[in-house]
């Protein structure tokens, strides 16, 4: 039978906006040693703004943004959503065909009869497009139309104030290893990691590379300790599934992530982890 303390722990957590899918996760949480975070939507707001449009000579700024917005029309990714919002004009869906979102890369789609690519340097490399190297902080979305490079958009995100609170809280609880894994570029990732004083950061990872990194981290913890992964969920379901405790953001998170997670933070504030750990440590004391 399950000791009563577990139920009160889950109950207390749920009153605090934290859903925990089983009593075992409270136990694992009380033993957490390594915290792994996704960046976008988890430590950063995930509400991107287009801050720069850099068009090549043979296309206008407006046309470049138009191709980008058509390409991203069906995307739920925060990057795609921000591009459609920046365009802010009606989009004729009949002109969008063969939509294909390539996770960790971007979009390949037919717009007005032309093959449009919108994504990072990995996507450009994959499709053999020569692109401009950009060394600015921000997520770069390159655009190519019928194999011709047309320029890029820079999209910026902000660190959540609550992320600072979360990391500081974890330090107070004596968590020594806090890691960020992200699909985003090195410049952006390192900037966030420095700002939040994280122990380490790995960037430009595809979803299965995130899984590999988590497996490597498992080897560095003590036998009794556990690993907690927290993500907004877009492309994170595989890592959520292998972590001892997989935590998803309930607001921004995708249905697949909420499904794959062991815990859900309803209001997307990572500092809820601190409350959860405190509840779990208290509950463990009551139970044992
Ligand atoms: P993370 O959430 O860690 O940033 P993702 O796997 O969601 O990782 O995305 C990784 C990278 O793939 C993004 O930073 C971006 O460069 C590119 N990307 C993903 N989806 C899109 C999209 N819809 N449009 C353009 N680029 C995208
Ligand atoms: Mg993500």
TrEMBL record:
It is found in: Cell membrane. Belongs to the cation transport ATPase (P-type) (TC 3.A.3) family. Type IB subfamily. This is Cd(2+)-exporting ATPase. It comes from Intestinibacter bartlettii.
